[in-house]
Amino acid sequence: MTILPGAGAYWFEGNEVGCLLLHGFTGTPQNVRPLADYLARRGLAVAAPRMPGHGTTAADLDETGPEEWLGAAEQALTELRNRCSTVFVAGISMGGTITLELARRHADLPGIVVMAAPVLPLDALEPVVNDPNRPASIPAPWATVGVLTEDLGVGGIAYPEMPLGALQRGMQLMTQVREGLGDVTAPTLLIYGDADQIVDKANGPFVHGRISSDDKRLIPLSDSSHEVTLDVDRERVMVEVYDFIRAHSKE
Predict the structure, then answer these.
(1) pLDDT tens, 179-230?
(2) CA separation (Å) from 49 to 10, 22, 73, 136, 141?
(3) What is the dihedral of CA 179, 104, 217, 230, to 10 degrees?
């Protein structure tokens, strides 16, 4: 198995406060690297695993699903908790959906950050994934410049196509997470781009209104699209995430 250049997992040593960063569907840890660097420079331990099937080929991704992705996230969380006394989880896109599921499973998390995470049905894709004669994959909308970010000078590492088997399984995970939102009680920071062309910004208020957390905040970013960790408002995202972690940390 050959990992695409720059698409591998990474780890930063730090203090007793750690943050697990989870990338999205077809993406790689590189897509959250600016946030990881920012947190690490401020002393946090940071782990950014590469989800199974990602950073290699789209065919590899089509052999995986939520069981493998959640398994990798759980393993990374356990490893980070073995090193740090306080561990936060942050995720973007499908990584944010996985973050919500981890929060449901681990009620003792001190806080989570959910960025551009889909939980609502993807109505436009339902007919495609449910078509018995569907192709193995379709072009990803983010293969078009200017879809993932408003800032045309940046970009993440992601497959230019979506394998439909993995996508269908990912949509099943979204349904599971949507139905379990009421079990999420951890302090939660939600960040969604108003110009997101991939995930409807309506997901933000939906999640905010259904999680049971007493401490929750939704930040809409008026100038950003889907990859909020790379886009125009990335510096604000860095500051908001760090301030949230610092405010909810025991350190």
Answers:
(1) 999 999 999 999 999 999 999 999 999 999 999 999 999 999 999 999 999 9
(2) 7, 7, 8, 26, 24
(3) -90
- The angle that helices 66-83 and 164-179 make with each other, rounded to 10 degrees, is 60
- Which domain CATH number covers 218? 3.40.50.1820
Which residues, including other chains, have CB under 8 Å from residue 92's CB and lie 6 or more apart?
22, 23, 24, 27, 31, 32, 115, 116, 117, 227, 228, 229
> Could you tell me how far CA 168 lies from the centroid of its own chain?
17
Q: What is the pLDDT of residue 251?
A: 46
Contact 206, 119 (CB under 8 A): yes
Cβ-contact 23, 95 below 8 angstroms: yes
Number of domains in the chain: 1
Indicate whether 196 belongs to any domain: yes
Amino acid at 27: G
Q: How many angstroms separate the CA atoms of 28 and 7, rounded? A: 5
Residue 90 has phi, psi (to 5 degrees) of -135, 140
- Per-residue pLDDT tens for 77-133? 999 999 999 999 999 999 999 999 999 999 999 999 999 999 999 998 999 999 999
Q: Residue 48 is part of which domain span? A: 10-247
Let me know if residue 5 belongs to a domain. no
pLDDT, tens digit (0-9, with 9 covering 90-100), for 12-38: 999 999 999 999 999 999 999 999 999
This prediction's pTM:
0.96
pLDDT band for position 250 (50/70/90)? low
